[in-house]
Amino acid sequence: MKPHRILSSLAMLILASAFQHSGPSALSAAPAAADPESPGARAERIAWFRDAKYGLFIHWGLYAIPAGEWKGRRVPGIGEWIMQHAQIPDAEYSRLASQFFPEKFDAGAYAQLALDAGMKYVVITAKHHDGFALFKSAVSDYNVVDATPFKRDIVKELADACARRGLRFGVYYSQAQDWHEPNGAGNTWDFGPDDKKDFDKYLREKAEPQVRELLSNYGPVCLVWFDTPRMMDTGGRAGRFTGIVRALQPACLIDGRLGAGGDYVSTDDNAIPGAISDTPWETPATLNHTWGYRKDDNDWKRPGEIIFKLVDIVSKGGNYLLNIGPKADGEIPAPSVESLRTVGAWLKVNGEAVHGAARTPFGEELGGYIEGRKDSGGGRVWGELSAWRCTARPGRLYFTVFSDWPRNGFDLPAFKNKIKTAWCLDDPDRTPIEITTGKDGRRTIKVPRPARNAMANVLVVEYEGDGIEK
Ligand code: GLC
After folding, report:
1. Fewer CB in 10 Å around end: N or C, the chain?
2. What average pLDDT does range 89-104 have in this prediction?
């Protein structure tokens, strides 16, 4: 099994248990206590994340130079894994550092893109599996300042640019895999099997001190995005990272891939669960099929698709962390910029249905298990419905309608509350829309035709009462 496949199964397991045990919202927990793992402290830490909903992931490193091709040969798979997929010796791969000179890199433009896209946080690969750090490090000179002609601390510039724009800033850090280090996990072609390595030496001498550096030198870090938790369950290894994060920045979140003790669930890559969960969660996702830039991957998600996924996720209580993979010269591929900005323009008008919005009080719109159908492993098969999604705020429901703008009006799901009024979220005049009640009691919103927006339209319904009564 490929290493990231193993991770995938692990992530799904963690996810499955989180979704089974979804209880009441963590936000309703008691006030913060001194113990950082108490329900109150956890709820307080996660509050901003629950409201943020949408973040920018940035995968950038030396792998952007080969961009999916090594010595004239196309190397299939995700771009940032090229070193391992082509089994490139570290002595050769690490020479890429001398070519790293991203003259088009502009931290302000990156942060501005996130802002224009309607995103609330930015997470960059401070160190990915190849072991190369995008920040100045005192414990390893395999970093952008010491090993490249560029000599600028990219993490620092981006952290500052985000702070200036009021965006939260987080770092991805590959804690277990480090293909540059003889004792790091993953590089078996240079350094032999992982179980013969002095893994704790690598953790103590590089990974732990680098996480300390990231949490000491770059201002407030909103989260550390650990990944591929190999060999983390022995000797309190995961716990050592948790200890570092809690001690240096108590407000900083830990994602779901440290191996233990995360603040939220990270789903499998690009995986959006079918059901609602009140346990905080996030889907990390690509805009095409790779995280790190590949010159041959131009299969970009369309803005309408991104809007659907975002609202779908929010309606189930989660966050969407959407990735860009800058080129070696620092330019962000134009189609991804365009898509993100188009979605951002939609959010500028319709963001009330997303940022800070709660999950759907219904659920039937999501789909369900298809009766009588089993997959090849004998498991139940989920049938997704995709016509509309619902998100909520006190006294208001937001129905985002995606396809087939209803000819005869939008049929509301059943609930007992009296409706005060309804309007289209993108209508600044809030012109009330007529609502009729059929003989069976079903209420229908007489939507304006044609649809106002070709991708997605939000209907706001204001109701009486403190919560939806069914
Ligand atoms: C996978 C890959 C990694 C990528 C990550 C993002 O786990 O190992 O390359 O950074 O997913 O979710």
Report:
1. N
2. 98
For the stretch 337-395, pLDDT in tens is 999 999 999 999 999 999 999 999 999 999 999 999 999 999 999 999 999 999 999 99
Q: Is 291 in the pocket of ligand 1 (CB under 6 A)?
A: yes
C-alpha 374/C-alpha 383 separation (Å) is: 11
Query: Taking a C-beta distance cutoff of 8 angstroms, is the pair 127, 173 a contact?
Result: yes
- Going from the Cα of 212 to the center of ligand 1, the distance in angstroms, rounded, reads 22
Alpha-helical regions (H) of 144-236: 144-147, 154-164, 188-191, 199-202, 208-217
Coil vs helix vs strand at 368: strand
Atom nearest to 257 CA in ligand 1: 7
- Looking at residue 271, its pLDDT comes to 97
Determine the number of helices (DSSP H) and then strands (DSSP E) in the chain: 13, 19
Amino acid letter, 97: A
Q: Which atom of ligand 1 is nearest to the CA of 177?
A: 8
Q: pTM here?
A: 0.92
The length of the chain is: 470
CATH code at 9-353: 3.20.20.80
Whether CATH 3.30.70 fits 364-463 = no
**Contact, 312 vs 272, CB < 8 A?**
yes
- pLDDT tens digits along 22-53: 333 444 444 444 799 999 999 999 999 999 99
**CB-based contacts of 397: which residues, under 8 Å, 6+ apart?**
361, 390, 391, 460, 461, 463, 468
Average pLDDT over residues 427-434: 96
Mutate to test the pocket of ligand 1, among 179, 226, 228 (most ligand atoms within 8 A of CB): 228
Average pLDDT score, the chain: 93
pLDDT band at 91 (very low <50, low <70, confident <90, very high): very high
Q: Where are the domains of the chain?
A: 9-353, 364-463
Ligand 1 in reach of 227 Cβ (< 6 A): yes
Instruction: Identify the pLDDT of residue 235.
Output: 86
Average pLDDT over residues 5-18: 41
Cis-peptide into 450, omega within 30 deg: yes
Q: How far is the CA of 108 from the centre of ligand 1 (A)?
A: 25
The residue contributing the CA closest to ligand 1 atom 10 is: 291
CA separation for the pair 399, 392 (Å, rounded): 9
Give the span between the Cα atoms of 8 and 451, in whole angstroms.
39
Does residue 10 register a pLDDT over 60? no
Secondary structure element (H or E) that encloses residue 40, with its range: helix 39-52
Q: Are 228 and 4 in contact (CB under 8 A)?
A: yes
pLDDT of the residue at 3: 43
Average pLDDT for 105-131: 98
